[in-house]
Predict the structure.
Amino acid sequence: MLLNFFFPKEFDFFNLFEQQVDYAVQSARKFKDIAATPGLIEESSYQAITHLEHQGDDATHTVIAQLNKTFITPFDREDIYDLTKQLDDITDMINTMVGRIKVYKILGGDKHLMEFSRVIEESVLAVAKAVKGMRHKNGTGAVLEACVEINRLENVGDAMRDAMLLELFESKTAIEIIKWKEIYQDAETVLDICEDVANVVESILVKQA
Amino acid sequence: MLLNFFFPKEFDFFNLFEQQVDYAVQSARKFKDIAATPGLIEESSYQAITHLEHQGDDATHTVIAQLNKTFITPFDREDIYDLTKQLDDITDMINTMVGRIKVYKILGGDKHLMEFSRVIEESVLAVAKAVKGMRHKNGTGAVLEACVEINRLENVGDAMRDAMLLELFESKTAIEIIKWKEIYQDAETVLDICEDVANVVESILVKQA
Amino acid sequence: MLLNFFFPKEFDFFNLFEQQVDYAVQSARKFKDIAATPGLIEESSYQAITHLEHQGDDATHTVIAQLNKTFITPFDREDIYDLTKQLDDITDMINTMVGRIKVYKILGGDKHLMEFSRVIEESVLAVAKAVKGMRHKNGTGAVLEACVEINRLENVGDAMRDAMLLELFESKTAIEIIKWKEIYQDAETVLDICEDVANVVESILVKQA
């Protein structure tokens, strides 16, 4: 059919979203390892996180390039743009946080950092469930459940950060406070970005209802 | 008329904007109380600010849900989205700042904090005037005046923060500097967000001129 | 022709982009001077940076006002909006950084600051090349080359900031760390914004290909 010439076969954006979310999950897992491993971060772990961040960047560029070439999209172009950016932001933010851990010579095995890394992994796994569920017309229930869970974990993270900051300011030197305050804030930001993803996913579902 | 079936009666976005701005005004007033009350923040004041933040969130969600369902909007969808988000950001930022005051055990009665809280209240009241004035076709003059005032107060806040930082770095310990620097920055950010609202309001008026 | 009455002569957005980029280049150059001049920042240098920031603001407002009045634009309205905002952000961020230098009484002649100021100037000059090249249909090669250079310099800045932070935390007092950490971060943010410009420019070129 002639139209096929002008309108290329619909591009499968879901494949790329799933790839992006996969990099986020791998980053969150690697971060959990790093937080739990005593001593300075190993160069190989740092490289692994950086490599995932680059792969995430490539996937994001592919989505945006396709978006600029594709006439028919599975949902609003703007939502595709927001979703791909925010999925990328998860991997980016984990990479940023691990960069700080390296530069500040933060030692693994810290109880608080491990606690945060577990909540981050849970949240990113819920993001994976939400994003993968969007593909299935009758998966709306599971997607919304995952979004509720992501919101819950963001609140958990908020409270954790506040409790940790309170302790930090009462027990550490100014230099330690500067370092850890930034790490806790970065960790909480990962959870905020997961919540941003949940918000976009929910808004996409509402429009298609 | 059949069309009514497809196009529901135009939703009154202005009602919700006014509700959002009301939460912002109440938050700013409560913050002024907190800043002026000597000693640690009272739990009831903290709860009041948090409650306003939740109410603001609900109003924002309602606006966005309606936006996704409404075909005819009083002005550009994008501007409605920006306006609702930024009005919510005012209440959010005041809540964030008060959260820091609690965690850092900042004592009320501080001269600088009180000064900032008065400028914030003035700016949020000007935002209320601008937003409420948008409803009236012949209220453009008053709306623009309020926008000019919001811009003026943002500059006042900038200068205040710089003067306070200068004093801070010359008279306090590193740990005190870390705490207060963040509080002053948050306070200034409230004024920045008010300015963002003024910019959206002005751009809406320009398009309707 | 009647249509001319409704559709005013196409507004030359490129002129204004070039003006904006010019303010950014002048700001970057002035910042290089400031970084290299020993002692406290001179009031005249500070005023010059602030003046450029105001001129940049005016140019941005003109672009947005025109955008709201113009029916036919050389490329997507959203891209025009992003481009004008980000060009303004470069000048804004340099102004913010210089404001911190003044308030924190940072002395010129610092080796690291000078190093950063040179990379910033290079990056802003590449932004100028990219933006000015967009006007010419057969200048795509040079524009893309400039974008690659901007990306390279952002990576250079990242590595510089990390190396400087590492040194900072090992050799300075907490108060010095607080000051310099913010300055380095601001400097790196200028390079991030240049990269944002490169991304918008590339996406505009892709759509027109």
The mean pLDDT of chain A is 92. Helices of chain A lie at 3-6, 13-36, 43-69, 77-103, 111-133, 140-171, 174-208.
